[in-house]
Design goal:
alpha+beta, six-stranded mixed sheet, 7 helices
Amino acid sequence: MSNIDAVNALITAINFDRFAEIEAHHAPDVNFQSFRGPNIRGSVALGDWHRLFLKDYADCNYTALEYIEDGDVVAVRATIEAKGYDWRSFTQRVLEVFRLVGGEVVERRLYGMFRDIEFDKPVNAAMDDALGYRGGSKAASRRAIEEMLAARTAGDGEKTASAYHEKPVMVDGIYGLAVGTGAIESLVDARPRPAFGVERPTLIVAGEHDVVVESGFDPTRARRAEWYRLVDGKIRVVESYWMFREIGVRPDENYANDRHQRQVVLPI
């Protein structure tokens, strides 16, 4: 039986602020990491986290859902539509990775981009191309991404470049947009990183033409997740989502935290 139904039920509970249902969809000892932090252990603590989250993200609605299911793992890319502290609407692209056992979520990681990111014409064209593609296979897609990552780690620029489509784009939720293989690899090289350690994949979730790769310097500390979209076996679009706190970015640094309370203004 597919775990996507269980994930959909959880997302529906979040959309309708059903806190008891949110807790019930998670195992009692669930491990939850999010770009907003802090890391949570346990369904009760996670329910409390969602009460705060759905206050800051008023009228929250997960839209434009895309799924990859691979074994007991489901990866979901979504656009959250919500209202901020001043009740103005905003959108935020997120990527969630769930591991389920017996229909319950036992591990969950929520990565994000900055809010209200707008795509330019080349990115929109690449996204339309990738979303319209219907070919591919799980095995081939996984192999293509694994070979690209191995070539990048080995410093083989030529083999790395061969994995890309002739017109690839990257949407990095923190560090910007890049168009073309050279620009993408330059952006990857320019990302700040710790003085010690090597960033390695911690999980690969493969679909027919979409692959999610989680990576980090410490296997127990999620850092980044990337959604690769392939066309004819070549990387067409890369979307990079981050754990903000892990890279020293305050989740709400560009947004106020104190919500303006709606109230009736009475005449004096």
